Fold these 3 entries.
Entry 1:
Amino acid sequence: MTTGQAENILIIRLSSLGDILLTTPLLRSLKNLYPGKNIDFLIRAEYAATLKFNPYVNEVLLYKRDDNSELLRRLKGKKYTAVVDLQNNLRSRKIVKTLKAPAFRFKKRSFDKFLLVKFKINRLRNAPQIPKRYAASIPDFKLDGLGLELFLPEKSPLGLDPGMDYIGFCPGSRHFTKMWPPEYFTSLGRLLQKEGFNVVLLGGKSDREICRRLSEEIPSSIDLSNDDDLFQTAALMKQCRLIVCNDSGLMHAACSARVPVLAIFGSTVKEFGFTPYKNKNLILENNLLSCRPCSHIGREKCPLGHFKCMLEITPETVLDNVKRMLDLS
């Protein structure tokens, strides 16, 4: 990339929530380094809210699951001078090939992930976090050292009682092996209430059922899960003293809201790079198990049947660490 005349740059990261939020340090650093360049971002339509109000993005372009012929015509007309492909899959490579612009690609290190999952050969031990690996896609480019960002509308859509102490729970995940057991969240919620905290349940459309269940089992808890209203969820997170969550997209949303995060990792490990970035956090994981990681994205069940990676992280352990993070121990 060069300085000089105005240029159009396209960033491609189609999905998912956490992966897109992890691009925000690159967007900010790139725009601050090259203020004269127009930066567009290609994203799947269901994740458009992540960048809707981001001031470093000139235009958010929406990729559809079906016909993208009109989109491709628009992209060609923009005459991009560089494309940064942070998705690096068949779809994104096809787009890059169509645009015929100089391309920079994110190195996914798929083989290293395969070695770690299947043979426990760890060549990712010293791998940087994902935002830094995104930045490394561009030669000689460095991030500014600040964290993730999610820009909200000027008016917050929902508020909590400012006189109360809230701990937010994000109990959902797409995959079973990345979810701390619901009954453990229930026990933790009751323990926190004895300590004087109020529990707020947060999540999107796929989390409605687990949040409803927990709201019934944790007395006086507040179920504020919604139909994927990211702005509402982030605004509520900002009113919590701490978020307890799984390794999920909402973990990165909490970091974007700059709220302390206690994350519980089960089948996945920190070496994959999808850890809380530049935000106060604590990761709890069972490092005594030789079977971890069993997947880099999560599984529908524990392949060995014992699920010790989650079951051996008790609610009492999490409570002690919540109190330590809040300087209450």
Entry 2:
Amino acid sequence: MKRSFVLVSGIVVLGLMLSGCAPAPTAAPAAPAATAAPTVAPSATPLVPPEKLVEKGKLLICSDAPYPPFESINDKGEWEGMDVDLGNEIAKRLALKAQFVPTVFDTIIASVTSGKCDILISAMTINPDRNKQISFVPYINVGQSFVALKGNPDNITGPMDLCGKSVAAESGTVEVDYLKGTGDYLDKGLSQECVKAGKKAVNVVVTQKDTDAFQQLQAKKVVVYATDSPVAAYYLLSHGDKFQTVGDVIESFPEGIGIPCEAADCSTAPFSAIGKAIDNAFKAMLADGTYDSILKKWSMTDGSIK
């Protein structure tokens, strides 16, 4: 396999999110004063050239919601989540107003490169194919988990137990690539391993939304649902009497803020003007503790890129 696996129990994954769905702390970490922004760029120079923005005074951020605890929209129509806090803080440091744009995940890169949004923040795993299309500022390390019905009726103890069985995952994700042997896992995915072992390939049920994949498991149409570990933990916390994590999970890999690079191959290109501003703002958040505070709020400190 191109990537190794580590065994993670449902208890460990659940522990990541013990407070992720709970109300936010009564006193949120104080955001740096607006006057601190010039510390990441000369005050005489615009942090982001206005002509580089889709809309003047705004930082348009493409994101695929719902995907709690990264991003979701509450009953009041307000965006919330770890990615949302991150995007709002970055925009504030650039003297801009963040505006989140609902976007389907498998078209989210195209939405950024075509000018629908300035950047994307949507729990996107960095891989070579994506990095050719956009630049990335890594901001968290995240693993992927398998969620099954409580009691694990199909006795899934590892990836090979999924051979010949139905598994749901969201379109355009690393989970789909791993299960089908596409993208970064071209011809080296789980289905190929199953066939080599004389078993049937995985029947991958691809859905447009991550919540649709979870509903496939709820309806008992698949044996497991594959998603990022913090998302799995979120659902265990809210539906712990009905579901559990099972078997092996893909080890952690970096996820990043996606930025248009204005080059044919972003993997070797320098940051664009927006990229430089985003990178500087994020580095300042790392330095002054704001990044740590956001991770702590959403119980994701184990994923810190530090």
Entry 3:
Amino acid sequence: MSKKKLYLTIFFIFLLAVFAGIFSYPDSVNRGIKSFNNLNVSLFGFQIQIPNFPNAPFILGLDLQGGVQLIYEADLSNIEEADRKETMDGLRDVIERRVNLYGISEPVIQVQGESRLIVELAGVKDIQGAIEMIGETPYLEFKEMLSDEEREEAKKEFTEEEISQIIEAYKQQSDQEITREEVLDFLTSGILKETELTGKYLKRADITFDSNTNKPQVSLEFKEEGAKLFEQITERNIGKPLAIFLDGQSIVDTDKDGKITENDLYAPTVQEKISGGKAVITGNMNVDQAREIVKRLNSGALPVKIGSPIYQKLIGPTLGQVSLEKSLKAGILGFLAIIIFMIIFYRLPGFLASVALVIYAALVLFLFKAIPVTLSLAGIGGFILSVGMAVDANILIFSRMREELKNGKDFEQSVREGFNRAWPSIRDSNFNSLIVCLILFTFATSFIKGFAFTLSLGILVSMFSAIVITRTFLKCFIGTKLEKIKWLW
């Protein structure tokens, strides 16, 4: 590489480092920009105003900034045991989409055991608001009327005392007689039972308008399995109403009594078997209500009921802040100790490695903000550990260089051989560490995942720092007088 290209590479490295540093901590630069703009400097009659550098905050986890922790117990009573894990995974994904829709970044939502769901929302201070937000996720279900056999069985559940009270009350109000069988028919006529079809099988929802009445309605499209279930349900309910419930309330139940009767004018009656997996929700709704239903359904209908949380806690950031301050203090002291050690033991190469280490830290912090990465205490621990691994690569390279210099090779050959001979060890050790990080990220809990991600990110940047940045710095001294001063190397 020519000297011109070499110096140009160094210029871009420092330019990248300065940009990363300003992006990571722009406050000082923005204060300077503000002071300059207050001077009202003009050029060719135009006032110069420099825009501030964007100040994106680091995203902190629940343990560092506090937030809300909720634990829900899902109702899996109607779910086959073989399908429960898949159902809980679906529930987790739906709620994660829901909280992301409300602008909460990096929520921690995980399944615990067979039926419990843990929801951790960093930065949220209102427990009731968080519960209401999650509760807005709709649970969609279809219910059908009882068959003749099931109605006969249901009639047996009413006692003679209850029937007699109804007959007497009816006689007093209307001054007419009513038979026992008529009472039982009335009591069982509006009883509904759940079907297999729920929001789990919903593909998407859209707002449409009735061609005759021009009233808004909600069209539903089911997934392949849901389309088959809907076809079977409509086939066995021809001539009967099919009730659609959203969050436990029938959309077409006009008197809100939980039963579908002839008084419910908008109760959809199945006219024929419906194939193709499409349905329409009609009801006494306006455009805004229909639009809200569509929005909520498309953001995710819950595959099972979760009800109210069985545990709720508002977590304060005090403990996390203390731990963060101690961790940062330990990290800074360790960083300074590494620099002092490298300079004392490796002299000029150690100084160059220290400069590369500062650039490394700026780049990693830039990536934490740009990706962005949610930082927990475990994640910060992974970053601090990666700093030590970044130094390991430089130590291997400098030790190989010294061996080559002792064997009588010139400086250029020593630099080249030092990197070539150290590279296999650097590659293999870092590759093994990345494999461990991948395993942790795939199978561990959320906090360990944060550690694994920050550590793996730090390892990748450390390899770039050692192989590219440090190597470029050393090449600047090839052919100079300093390469002749043996004690520097």
